[in-house]
Design brief:
alpha+beta; GMP Synthetase, Chain A, domain 3; 4 helices; 3 strands
Length: about 150
């Protein structure tokens, strides 16, 4: 039965914390700016680590090249910060989930806005419906009260 919080999970979280700080403070490559580490997966033998990132500026190919170029430096700095017998090889993988989520949210907002426009009757149309209903049900037109909601 697997445990809920294994050593590889703790090491993955520590790698993510340390790398986020290293990327923010130590890496001078301009391609490796404006990125966020979204997750880390470490193999059970600690030989490899998949580092999932997202680029806030949207340019993933340049960021990928910058991260691959800095991976040796980052690995050596991680080895000094963390006391592990085996420091994993770092493999950077672009994670499009943030962009996909933002795009879906934008589509939902557009659908809601277009739904409000297409289903909100205008005041004149609403008034016309009230007077037609009054004439259909043989209610005298002088008894129909139309409230003007544009002033409230």
């Amino acid at each position: 039965m697997p445990k809920g919080y294994t050593r590889t999970d703790r090491i993955a979280e520590q790698i993510q914390r340390e790398l986020a700080q290293l990327l923010r403070l130590d890496v001078k490559d301009p391609r490796v700016r404006m990125i966020t580490l979204t997750g880390v997966e470490v193999t059970k033998d600690y030989s490899h680590a998949k580092l999932f990132y997202t680029a806030l500026d949207g340019e993933s190919t340049a960021v990928q090249q910058g991260l691959e170029r800095a991976s040796g430096y980052l690995r050596s700095r991680l080895a000094h910060a963390m006391k592990l017998r085996i420091m994993p090889q770092l493999h950077f993988i672009y994670d499009p989930s943030i962009e996909r989520g933002a795009h879906l949210s934008q589509l939902i907002d557009q659908a809601v806005a277009s739904d409000k426009i297409s289903h909100s009757p205008s005041i004149a149309h609403f008034d016309l419906l009230l007077t037609e209903d009054a004439s259909d049900h043989s209610i005298p037109s002088d008894k129909v009260v139309v409230k003007d909601v544009s002033r409230s």
